[in-house]
Amino acid sequence: MSMILSGISVSAANDAATEEGQSMESSQTDQNQQQMNDEADQEINQEIDGTQEQSELTENPDTPENTTGERTVVSVDGNGNVVSTENGTLGTVTGSETKNTTVKDSLGNQVVVPAGFKVINPTENVTNGIVVEDVSHSATAGSQFVWIPVGEVVKDSAGNKETITLGRYSFDSSGNATAYSGTYTEDTASNHNSSYGNTIAKDIEDFKNKVTNTTHGYYIGRYESRTSTERKSETDKPTQITIKPDKYVYNYITQLQAAELSRGMYSDSNFESDLMNSYAWDTATLFLQTCGEEKYSIKTSVNNSLASRGTNSSDYTGTRDTVCNVYDMASNIRELTTETSNGSDGPCVSRGGDCYISTFDTSCRDDNGTSNSNDNLGFRPLLFVGLNS
Hints:
Layout: H1 2-58, E1 74-76, E2 82-84, E3 101-104, E4 110-113, E5 117-119, E6 131-134, E7 144-149, E8 151-154, E9 161-164, E10 169-171, E11 177-179, H2 204-214, E12 217-221, E13 226-227, E14 248-249, H3 255-264, E15 272-275, H4 278-291, E16 322-323, E17 326-327, E18 334-340, E19 348-351, E20 365-368, E21 377-379, E22 381-384
Parallel strand pairs: 2-3, 18-21
Antiparallel strand pairs: 1-2, 3-4, 5-6, 6-7, 7-12, 8-9, 10-11, 12-22, 13-14, 15-22, 16-17, 18-19, 19-20
């Protein structure tokens, strides 16, 4: 009997063990199922979150479209600047933006478009000369500027590159560039001899830092400065400056007046305007002959009499001076800058070709007095964009 009872006891124990094992397996299965359910829920939530995030980038009606009408992927940095991460997005900027917008050409070269401007040649690349036009500042709307890249530039679809280094240059008789070592200076407030009486750059160190380290480029006027009323003499009063293709060249102006007009052209927290400095002139010259016309630095004026509306004008019938969408740096009128000379003829340095002087070329430097004002002396402003901070 005891053996039977013992057998019963063993059998019962085995049954209990089996039930316990099944219970443990069932519990483990339940735990595994729960974990799988949790992971599935997490994946679903991540997918939903990702879809929502992507929707914010690509389906939001405020997100710019590319040239095919599709929404482009953009981001907005902590300071409100819009940055596109895709190539071929130059055409997405409309001019209604209230912050600067970083876009790229089809080769991946960066362009920072100032707030209130649009790109008018979005299918071209940086090496062709990207032109932006003011569409939102009432007094200067229609003014056009060309992007001068600083740093590495992709030239073609094969990936060939050039490096444009911001600097002051001399160009020899073959057009070769070397670091400038002459006596002319680009002064700061701390080292300028104020007794000279000329106007220096607003903040040359700030300009150099921003265009080299932040935006990797800057803008120069597409044309010599323009005005709606043709100027006839040095007694003409200053008028509103524009950079419009169909207006008159802004001549009969002193260096001090040119600097004041250039600085006052815009009052916008997104970017600054100033009179052309020597870094901007020389680097633009280097870019134009590297990516445009070989030896442009030593090109002389294509016209031998004043073109009152530039060589771009429809009423001008001679050879046009245009490289990478920039006009007349080698031609028409000399252009006053913020560079300083200690020469006897005056502290104000003008640059470029002169329709009346056949030996003056794009890289030429010439001394002018602070009161000099005549028909073959004008100026060109620049814009530099410091990403909002």
